Amino acid sequence: MDGSSHQSDPLRRARLRWRARRGLLENDLIFERFFSRYEHDLSDADVGVLTRLLELSDNDLMDLLLARKEPEGDLADPDVRRVLDMLRTA
């Protein structure tokens, strides 16, 4: 985790967890493992990155999660890469 502030709002985390429920089972499984491992340690920056990632289509998100593609454009920043690494290894 980086040094940014801890995301302590349980309602915000619950909403994020609900929003992470996807149409593709593979994505659901990856996010379920991720939240089981990291949910209580997420920072505000992490929540912001997850929100951005969840705006992607299921297939684009799966390509990133499975490392078939790397983040591009406005997603190509260190915070996104760090959270993706967490998702990929959860």
TrEMBL record:
Its main location: cytoplasm. It is found in: Cytoplasm. Pfam families: Sdh5. It comes from the Bacteria. The keyword ATP-binding does not apply. Belongs to the SdhE FAD assembly factor family. This is FAD assembly factor SdhE. It comes from Paraburkholderia solisilvae.
